[in-house]
Design brief:
With 375 residues, this protein is mainly alpha-helical. It has one domain. The protein has 15 helices and no strands. Helix 12 runs antiparallel to helix 14. It is globular.
């Protein structure tokens, strides 16, 4: 009898412990859902970059413009299907499901064009640079976005952002290793590219991509809530498809058709990984603070290093590691500072609201009536 009671108590304790563990796991996932989405998005973006790099080496190689057309074409089709299905089954219709609201179509077009320029430059750079170098250079975005916001939206460009841009520039130089500073040996990369300055040009392509991404952020902020987020993705997708196809025609590039199942799978992977990464990043940023979100984005560097070692058996040079560390450190400082400023602004707004409510309450008091009641 005693043994049965002990067994019953032990089973009850085990079940309760299991339930507590499950509750803790659910609580952890709930608290960090945004960060987990951002981390998974970085895995998809790194996988997309890996597929782009592999496709650049197939025979015949797939051009950057074709990759842009394939990826954004798939993204555009999936986004358009989402809008149409949403409008069929939901009472909250998305107006102007194809072109977007009339008053912001110019901004939507601008968003699509700068996005096209950004992604095209990025795919070109992946032919000549390591994944880790490209990922590190993309973290120049917070600094450059601050400058673009000051230039076009008249937003404040804080001193910390200015100093960070100088340090980030040093990081870019260490990664690019231009010949006029490091000599011809510093400009060489792992494969024979037939030109000494090709690495510097590839780094310039990434910087163009970052500038394009910063302008995309500026135009998106200018659009604001006047258009549905899917309108922004659609403008980006269809502009990329149209301009990419036109550029291929102008340059006389042929659309290379897949010649094997592996090739086809890689092309589909570029579009699918890009779309999933974009959706997860958007959902994660809605749930997470800027500072924590930026830390999650840095996982892209980790994934890039793992992919380089596993698929290409390459290890980044020490100067690239130092340069990447400088860029990531300054990006973290800028992101944390922006998050701190937003928190302070929110607290000030709440304080002002309370003070305004108190003033209105005192102003509404009828002091004459109060005096009569006292007497």
């Amino acid at each position: 009898m005693a043994a049965d009671e002990e067994l019953s108590v032990s089973s009850s304790t085990t079940a309760r412990s299991f339930e507590e563990t499950e509750i803790k796991q659910q609580s952890f996932i709930s608290r960090n859902a945004g960060l987990l989405m951002i981390a998974l998005a970085q895995l998809f973006f790194s996988s997309m970059s890996l597929a782009v790099k592999v496709l650049a080496d197939v025979d015949p190689p797939v051009s950057a413009l074709e990759l842009v057309v394939v990826r954004m074409g798939l993204t555009g089709v999936l986004s358009q299907m989402y809008i149409l299905v949403h409008n069929i089954f939901s009472d909250d219709k998305i107006p102007n499901p194809i072109l977007g609201p009339l008053e912001v179509r110019g901004l939507l077009f601008a968003r699509g064009f700068v996005g096209f320029a950004s992604i095209t430059a990025l795919y070109h750079s992946l032919k000549y640079l390591d994944l880790s170098d490209v990922s590190a250079l993309q973290f120049l975005l917070p600094t450059i976005s601050g400058f673009s916001g000051m230039l076009f939206l008249k937003e404040p460009y804080l001193p910390i952002e200015r100093y960070s841009s100088i340090v980030s520039l040093l990081g870019v130089i260490l990664i690019a290793r231009p010949p006029f500073i490091f000599g011809h040996e510093g400009a060489q990369i792992n494969v024979d590219l037939g030109a000494i300055g090709i690495r510097t040009l590839a780094v310039c392509a990434v910087i163009v991509s970052v500038f394009g991404a910063s302008l995309a952020y500026v135009t998106t902020r200018a659009i604001g809530k006047r258009a549905h987020p899917m309108h922004v993705i659609l403008a980006f997708s269809w502009c990329s498809v149209i301009f990419g196809t036109l550029m291929m025609k102008i340059q006389g590039e042929q659309f290379v058709l897949p010649k094997s199942s592996k090739w086809t799978a890689l092309l589909i992977a570029v579009g699918t990984f890009g779309f999933l990464g974009q959706i997860l990043l958007t959902l994660g940023l809605r749930r997470e603070k800027v500072g924590r979100a930026s830390l999650g984005m840095y996982l892209q560097i980790v994934f890039a290093l793992i992919f380089e070692k596993v698929f290409f058996n390459t290890t980044p040079e020490m100067l690239s590691v130092v340069g990447a560390s400088l860029i990531i450190a300054t990006s973290t400082i800028v992101a944390m500072n922006k998050n701190k400023n937003k928190t302070e602004e929110k607290e000030n707004d709440e304080r002002e609201t309370l003070l305004r409510d108190e003033r209105q309450r005192f102003a509404s008091v009828d002091y004459g009536t109060l005096e009569q009641r006292r007497t």
